[in-house]
Structure formats: structure tokens, C-alpha cells
Amino acid sequence: MRSANGFDLAAYLDRIGADAEPPSYDALARLQAAHVRTHPFDNIDVLLEQHPGVTLAAVQEKFVGRGRGGYCFEHATVFHAAVVALGYDATLRLARVGDPDAAPRTHLGVVVTLDGVRWLADPGIGVPPLAPVRLEDGARLDGGIWPHELRRVEEGPSGPGWQLWRERSSGWELMHTTDELPVRAVDVTMGHHFTSTYPTSHFRSTFMLSRHGLADDGTPVQTTVTLDGVTSRRAGAPSTQRPLDLDELPELLDGLGANLTAGETSRLVRRLEGLLAER
Fold first, then answer.
1. Tens digit of each residue's pLDDT (9 = 90 or more) over 43-53
2. Are residue 182 and residue 234 in the same domain, yes or no?
């Protein structure tokens, strides 16, 4: 059955292999983990200049109908629709990636309120937390590829900001700063338009494809493909990287669930050849 906004919850749950559970933190965490292990993070449609947009209808058709992945605006849009359909109190929030004094609001996450406690659910970043992080200064989440931590910062009249940090082998790294401003559909459209069309947007000049998974022993793992190479990550272990051979790209796309047509794959290979030639 479709909700009033046209979202097909049953099809989404079937796609990610999840159950329709009553709202709880554990159920929300299971849903987020299932989402990121099903849908790749990628900027393929931006590179191919064929992005369908970030309306719920477009994202649902792409993620659920065609089994594709995408980037933050798409991940958060469909995940937000799912949690609302499941009965959660949830809102979208925009964030600034990297230096908050220089970065535009080009990241989208979901804030979920459970029994008066707010949680940041962030399924649409390259190496996401595998569960929601409590929206509280110093809140920490372990259990993914890297530990994550939220830190409160003052943002002025708009209210506090919430910085998501991750702990890598070289130390703590700032991911993004989420603000408390309301988010409307036009804000998401504007953020996506900037990210996908602005000449210096890194989504237009590089390639990224990531997919989470589980090792045989249940340890979180992730494979990421960029122009710099193929990176393998495993929780609690150093990352490894090897060069990317474009001849292997079709196999990598299939293995990571990109679900492209043969024509799209050929066009992507040519696009990446051009990007590499520009380096």
C-alpha cells in the first residue's frame, strides 16, 4: 500500500530485506543498516548528466524501482519517507560538509525523535554510521567502519549546530555540520542543483562508488571505487588500496550493485577516461 505522498513502503522494505517493525531505536538502527548495505553511495548520474532529480517519486523509482544508488539528497529523501511511513517523528536537516565557514549546505540527513530524544540518522555519506547517533554533545557511536561522534557548536540565532566527526587512524576528521533550520522541498532541490551542476563541485570532477557489507564473521566491511583506486575497509583493521583498471569497472559496478545498463556502463567508462586524462 502506498502512503499519501505516493511512497511504497512495502516495496522499499522488500528491496532492503527489512521488516515493518514498530518504532524503536533498535528497529531504526536495523533499518538504517539494511538501507546502507543495499543502496550504494555514488555520483554516477551526475557524471552521466542524466540525474532524474530528488523528488520522492524520482528517488523511489530509481532506488526501489531500478535498484540503483545515489548520493545524500537521494538517500535521505527515501529513508525519511520510509521512517515517516513506519510511524516515526522525523524531519530532514541540511548540513555543511567540511569547513562550516566555507561550505554550502549540500548534505542532507534525517533527525528522528523517539520518546523525546533526538537522533541523527545519516545514511547518505560515503562511509556512514551504521545506526543513528544521539543528538547530544559528545555522543559517540561505535560498531561501524569507524567510530563517530557528535559535537555541539554554536551557530548563532539559528540555534546550535551539530558536527559529525569520525575517528580514522590519523585522528578525528570533521564530516559535516548540521543546523536546526527547517528544510523544505525547494531547499533540497537547490542543494542538489548546486551539487550536481556547479562547475567546481567535486561530484562533477571525480568518481565515487561505495557499498557496505558484512564479512563472514559479521564484521562491517566496505568497498569504495574512485579515480584514485579501489579501497577495501574493514572495521578494526587498516584500509588497503590498489589502483583502478578501467577494464575491470563493469565487473566492479556489478559487484557493488550499481545496476547500470550496458549503455550507461559504456558512457561511464568514457567519462572516467576523460577525467583521468585531465589529471
1. 999 999 999 99
2. no
